[in-house]
Design goal:
With 91 residues, the chain is mainly α. The chain has helices at residues 2-10, 13-37, 47-90.
Length: 91
């Protein structure tokens, strides 16, 4: 335990963040290894079970995407049009 404490005390703030992030990535990867080791024939969830969920996601994206693009255009217009007018009126 003392070796670990001395290792972390020698690192700066950036080093501590990097080591913590690396430890988190290793933990996540070790959890996913078990899911790939399972036999696909024993899988509790099959591709046919996921089809309605995927279709629902696709349908929602098809509805939300045009609305999102419209809102994005409005926000950009509100932010940039006054700046453009100010630039031309000053010059």
């Amino acid at each position: 335990m003392n070796k670990i404490k001395s290792f972390f005390s020698g690192l700066g703030a950036t080093g501590k963040k990097t080591v913590t992030m690396a430890m988190g990535v290793v933990a996540m990867m070790s959890l996913t290894m078990f899911s790939f080791a399972a036999d696909p024939a024993d899988a509790a969830i099959t591709a046919t079970m996921l089809e309605p969920v995927l279709q629902g996601v696709k349908d929602n994206i098809a509805v939300i995407l045009p609305v999102g693009i419209g809102l994005f255009a409005i926000v950009l217009g509100i932010n940039f049009i006054p700046k453009i007018f100010k630039k031309f009126l000053k010059g």
